[in-house]
Amino acid sequence: FVAVLNPPQAAILAVGSIEDRPLVVEGELLVVPTLTMTLTCDHRAIDGSEGAEFLRTLKAFVETPSLAL
Q1: Is residue 2 part of a domain?
Q2: Predicted TM-score of the model (pTM)
């Protein structure tokens, strides 16, 4: 789903539930748990590229928690 910004919010992160989805890895079909996250930003306060970088960093921490240490 998409989270709706309510003033005075500058951004909001919507986090879905973990679901099993098919993924092809090196030609092999696997079923892997996936999590959908959607970031909605007010571009007057946060540049879209900064929001994308935030999501990339968050993804890295979620996939490899030891990075946060």
Answers
A1: no
A2: 0.78
